[in-house]
Amino acid sequence: MAPRNRLAHLGIVFGIGVGLGAGCGGKDAAATDAPDGTDGRSVDAPDFGDPLAGRGNVELVQGGLMFTEGPQWREAEGDLVFSDIPASTIYRYQPGGTPVVLVNPSNNANGLAVDGSGALVAAEHGMRRVSRAGATVAGMFEGKRLNSPNDVIVADDGTIYFTDPPYGITEAQSELLFSGVFRVAPDGTLTAELRGALASRPNGVGLSPDGGILYTVDTVDGNLYRYPIQLGGALGPRSMLAATSGNPDGLAVDIAGNIFVTTRTGVEVFSPLGARWGVIPVPMQPANCAFGDPDHKTLYITARTAVYRVRLEHAGLPRR
Fold first, then answer.
1. Burial of 145 per CB tally in 10 Å (0-12, 13-18, 19+)
2. pTM here?
3. What is the DSSP secondary structure assignment for residue 278, as one 8-state letter?
4. What b/e readout covers 148-161, taking b as 16+ CB neighbours within 10 angstroms?
5. Where are the alpha helices (DSSP H) in the chain?
6. Looking at residue 185, what DSSP letter applies?
7. Is the pLDDT of residue 298 over 60?
8. pLDDT band for position 318 (50/70/90)?
9. What is the rounded CA–CA span in Å between residue 280 and residue 241?
């Protein structure tokens, strides 16, 4: 199935066409042409220029937690869900309120996503699986247990992509001989799209506005990567898009195709062509981020023992 326009899927429509250039001119990293001649943005996606222009202050949503991850805005419920991995808890937060427990125990859930029916999809360290509404979607591959699924996202056609580094297990518990990027087809077929070295750490995942590119980061080598999504959902050859400042973890994408990556310096922002716009400093090193609120203009950031938020001028793509 061909990738769908995620902007149209969200009901975000613009009256004029725009070019595909990132417009990053004088920024601190040179743009890199995408290998296939496209940058992953829909032709409906606007080019707003600097995505950090006019941003608000970083504000605390909740502190006093253990290790937060997996932020995910749920459109139907009007809330943000996020994980506290060591506490084996998933919280829900409605803007203006206080986070409350949604799921406990969560099997040490890390990354979260929502499928087309609104069901919660979770990458669970404790059960070494990806689940949907509590039922196993993927747990074994070629007769061996997965490592510890880390981050997950659902495409518009129902395809699930997730990363599987061995963060949540010991070396003795490892059964696979690689750290992978996996795809679960709508019919349930599980495919390893990347069989990386066991020492590598594929981590955060995200999709471009047109649904034609999957982004991942590797926490060990510090790079942001892109994969073209082929017909049927399989991934094409991986290529490096940008080098981060180090320790990249999670990521989110805005409607112009800019990629927001949590790193050792905060939330670094890159254009669809790999140019670095700048960084949003965060009081604690962030682990993941996601766009939320009804207008999708709030970036929620999970950072160690706390959750933060920052308002931006332009909307992001809520993760699916």
1. middle
2. 0.89
3. E
4. bbbbbbbbbbbbbb
5. 6-9
6. -
7. yes
8. confident
9. 20
Domains and CATH numbers, the chain: 6-54+70-311 (2.120.10.30)
The 8 Å CB, 24+ separation contacts for 228-234 are 228/36, 229/3, 229/155, 231/1, 231/2, 232/1, 232/185, 233/1, 233/155, 233/157, 233/159, 233/183, 233/185, 234/183, 234/191, 234/193
State the DSSP H helix or E strand holding residue 50, giving kind and residue range, or none if neither. none
What is the structure's pLDDT at 310?
A: 98
E strand or H helix at 239:
strand 239-243
Q: Kindly tell me if the per-residue pLDDT of 201 is higher than 50.
A: yes
- Which residue bears the tokens 């042409």? 33
Encoded tokens for 84: 């506290």
Quick one: residue 66, left, alpha or beta (phi over 0 = left, psi -120 to 50 = alpha)? alpha
Report d(CA 267, CA 71) in Å as an integer: 14
Q: Which of 41, 37, 19, 36 is nearest to 210 (CA)?
A: 41
Q: C-alpha distances in angstroms, 96 versus 78, 112, 174, 311? A: 12, 22, 42, 14
- pLDDT for 24 beyond 60: no
Which residues, including other chains, have CB under 8 Å from residue 169's CB and lie 6 or more apart? Answer: 125, 128, 147, 148
